[in-house]
Design goal:
The protein has no helices and 19 strands. It is mainly β.
């Protein structure tokens, strides 16, 4: 199990030049992205970057949220409600005038099963296969381990009780051994 904190994350400009992504963790195989976990702030209306061959899942973790629209896509991105969309369809954020929103992003290679993304307010992370990531949105304890706000736990089959929260819990199945 890996425990990462904001000091471990890297910052990089968006492909479209309109903001900055904070990359929490990623994995590649043969030079291609398998999965990536990141955070970003959406502060103005505008296009999202395209990621061919990638499935995206976005959860607003602070702020009022916004609307995400594109061909065949009309999603209300509201606080603590995960939404999924293809990374290779042009989409744009609208409705940001109410204020900036910080979001947590899960990107997975299209051949992988879509990740399970849920918000947990206490309780427990169910046992199961696959890589599990827990992003603390407030101080909490996961399986007895203390986590600060925006700390990330990563582990294969990670499970156990969660005290406090909320937290975003991601399970990614189908990763190569």
């Amino acid at each position: 199990m890996r425990h990462l904190s904001p000091a471990d994350y890297t910052r990089q400009p968006w492909k479209n030049g309109k903001g900055v992504t904070v990359e929490l963790a990623r994995a590649e195989a043969d030079g291609a992205l398998l999965w990536r976990l990141s955070m970003a702030t959406v502060a103005e209306d505008g296009p999202f970057s395209l990621f061919p061959g990638i499935e995206r899942n976005l959860t607003v973790i602070s702020g009022p949220g916004f609307r995400l629209t594109g061909e065949g896509i009309a999603l209300d991105c509201r606080p603590l409600v995960p939404v999924a969309f293809p990374g290779d369809v042009a989409v744009a954020a609208t409705g940001t005038a109410a204020g900036p929103s910080e979001d947590f992003n899960v990107m997975t290679a299209r051949p992988l099963p879509r990740p399970d993304v849920a918000i947990l307010h206490g309780g427990a992370i169910p046992a199961g296969d696959g890589l599990v990531a827990v992003l603390a949105l407030a101080p909490l304890r996961v399986a007895g381990r203390a986590m600060g706000r925006h700390d990330l736990l990563l582990g294969a089959g990670l499970s156990g009780p969660v005290a406090g929260g909320p937290a975003v819990v991601v399970r990614i199945q189908g990763l190569p051994a």
